[in-house]
Amino acid sequence: MKKKLLSAILSMTMVAALLAGCGSSAAPAADTAAPAAEAAAEEAAPAEEAAPAADAAADEAAPAADAAAPAGGLKVGVSMPTKDLQRWNQDGANMEKELTDAGYEVDLQYASNDVQTQLSQVENMISSGCNVLVIAAIEGSSLGEALDMAKDAAIPVIAYDRLLMDSDAVSYYATFDNYKVGTVQGTYVKDTLKLDTEPGPFNIEFTAGDPGDNNAGFFFNGAYDVLKPYIDEGKLVVQSGKTTFNDVATPSWATETAQSEAENRISSFYTDKDIDVWLCSNDSTALGVENALAANYKGKYPIITGQDCDIENTKNMIAGKQSMSVFKDTRTLASQVVKMVTQILKDETVDVNDTETYNNNVITVPSFLCEPVFADANNYKELLIDSGYYTEDQLK
Ligand code: BGC
Question: Which ligand 1 atom is the nearest neighbour of the CA of 215?
Fold first, then answer.
């Protein structure tokens, strides 16, 4: 019976992980909640089984069997940066649902992209007795005071999606493989333009993310590392000359800022030339570039990359105005983080799969990296609609 149950959980989890593209993570809440609860009642997994094991099967099964909160009214503080961008609303909602389903009290706060607001929200979470904090920072290095408070109060902190910088008070980090997001974008450009065989030259421009967000450099470098050899040999030409992260960063990832910068570059460099590619690190900046192109560009429509599969951008992919995006299933990340919260509170080994990449200038933070997935107009139905991420109506 136990075996059957475990293998049922295992196959559900694997199917969901395949769909969601996250290496060894749990299925979306709706799929796992019931079996996890049942399994917990049936058998409390021994500690060795909960630890990351060489055997992937044990690794998959144990955390699912262990999802329920330990007894005793525990509260988790979840601090999100802003409601302005779609993904953080999804992240917050998923976290709240998964944590509540697992039996936790949840204090979910959004900080309107204002660092001071986030700082005082996190301080309130600490003084109001949260047992674990999950924080997606507006600016990675601005929460030092609150993190010190958390450390003094022995409250574990999980950095959510964005690394918390310059502090030793960060216990774990859960995110997507940020460098890989960039390589997926760069490789798409390389393959679509057939850079290894076509003579070129092709014109390319870059738009990257917020310099205060540690992820932004990883995205940019991932893409740039794939494309740099072709820039060096002159097959890809950056007419604006803007080739460093600092040259092309977009504060706050703001669509309007990306748009005005793109408008400037279009009118300065592309009144009589085509742009072949506009490499955008994410969807909010891609939207700005798409708006700028619609407003004042007359040449051939470029390849445009993005990330997040936001609704507006997915509509643009379907309409041929954005070539691709990178799907990061926020349900998968939420499941992973809830699993980590429970492992921390049960004093079990916490699931991580990277202990080298994410140094925050003080410590290297043990991390769990979920897999980002390539998305375009050909596979969005399977990725986004069949998996229940969006309804068909939302994309009309
Ligand atoms: C996230 C991206 C998002 C960006 C802007 C980054 O930290 O990883 O998914 O597009 O912030 O919100």
Answer: 7
Ligand 1 site, residue 207, Cβ cutoff 6 A: no
User: How far is Cα 336 from Cα 189, in angstroms, rounded to an integer?
Assistant: 31
Q: Does 161 sit in the ligand 1 pocket, CB within 6 Å?
A: yes
282 CA from centroid of ligand 1 (Å) = 7
Asked whether 253 lines ligand 1 (CB < 6 A), one says yes
Mutation test of ligand 1: which of 215, 326, 327, 369 has the most ligand atoms closer than 8 Å to its C-beta?
215
- The rounded distance, in Å, linking the Cα atoms of 4 and 171 is 35
Mean pLDDT for 62-84 is: 78
Q: Do residues 119 and 192 touch, judged by C-beta distance below 8 A?
A: no
Q: Does the C-beta of 97 come closer than 6 Å to ligand 1? A: no
* 233: helix, strand or coil: coil
Report pLDDT digits (tens) over 318-351: 999 999 999 999 999 999 999 999 999 999 999 9
Tell which atom from ligand 1 comes closest to the C-alpha of 175: 8
List the beta bridge partners of residue 280: 207
Helix residue ranges per DSSP H, the chain: 2-20, 29-42, 47-50, 56-65, 86-101, 115-127, 144-152, 178-192, 214-232, 245-248, 255-269, 283-296, 311-318, 330-345, 380
Convert 174-220 into a string of H (helix), E (strand) and C (coil): EEECHHHHHHHHHHHHHHHCCCCCCCCCEEEEEECCCCCCHHHHHHH
Does the pLDDT of residue 355 top 70, yes or no?
A: yes
pLDDT confidence tier of residue 14, bands split at 50, 70 and 90: very low
Cα 350 to ligand 1 centroid, rounded to whole Å? 24
- Contacts of residue 61, defined as CB under 8 A and 6 or more positions apart, other chains included, come to 6, 9, 10, 13, 45, 49
Q: How far is the CA of 134 from the centre of ligand 1 (A)?
A: 16
Instruction: State the angle between helix axes of 2-20 and 29-42 in degrees (0 to 180), rounded to the nearest 10.
Output: 160
Chain centre distance of CA 29: 18
3-state secondary structure of 163: coil
Instruction: Count Cα neighbours of 123 within 13 Å in the Cβ-side half-sphere.
Output: 12
87 lines ligand 1 (CB under 6 A): yes
